[in-house]
Amino acid sequence: MEDAARKIRVIIADDEPITRMDLKEILEAEQYQVVGEAADGFDVVELCKQLHPDLVLMDIKMPLLDGLSAAHIIFYENLADTVILLTAYSERVFIDEAKSVGVSGYLVKPIDEKSLIPSIELSVARSKEIKKLKKDIAKVSERLENRGIIEKAKGKIMEQHNMTEQDAYDYIRNLSLTKNLSMRRVAEFVLLKN
């Protein structure tokens, strides 16, 4: 567990310096790397832009920009992998908004070390799984898009040069190898050509 924890880079955001200090002590005792601290939502967003942490532990109620708004920006701009909100409020409206923003955890103050560390571990693990799934989906989408473009180019080559489907495919593949371009790029050129 120590090796995994040591790799987790954390930003703590809370307008109470004592809370930040307590959280930092707990995290560092567990071998987490606290890379930054912020007292308001604007500062935590800016720190995330600079440091791209694995985790942001953030209070909901902060001056200037609250934690929910900051979390929304952090996820929208892909500035951190995981956000866990810390709050004195357990009302349903806060929980629902946190879920809709994409927050991975929600802990009610006072924070107990025994619940904090397991929550962090589970939230970070879940975020890594989601990140991998998103990457896999993006790859599959790109492959499908590439295939569609190549199919269109094959059709155009077959029509213009009276080739078989296999011959048109081989033509694109050979040009790809000769010109050191992807098959998609060759297909795009074929489609642009009159």
UniProtKB/TrEMBL annotation:
Which domain of life does the protein's organism represent?
Answer: Bacteria
Q: ANTAR domain: which residues?
A: 130-191
User: Pfam families, from UniProt?
Assistant: ANTAR, Response_reg
Question: Where are residues bearing 4-aspartylphosphate located in the sequence?
Answer: D59
Q: List the Gene Ontology MF annotations in alphabetical order.
A: RNA binding
Q: Look up keyword Phosphoprotein and say if it applies.
A: yes
Task: List the PANTHER family.
Answer: PTHR43367, TWO-COMPONENT RESPONSE REGULATOR-LIKE APRR6-RELATED (PTHR43367:SF1)
Q: What is this protein called?
A: Stage 0 sporulation protein A homolog
Mind giving the lineage of the organism this protein is from? Answer: Bacteria, Bacillati, Bacillota, Clostridia, Eubacteriales
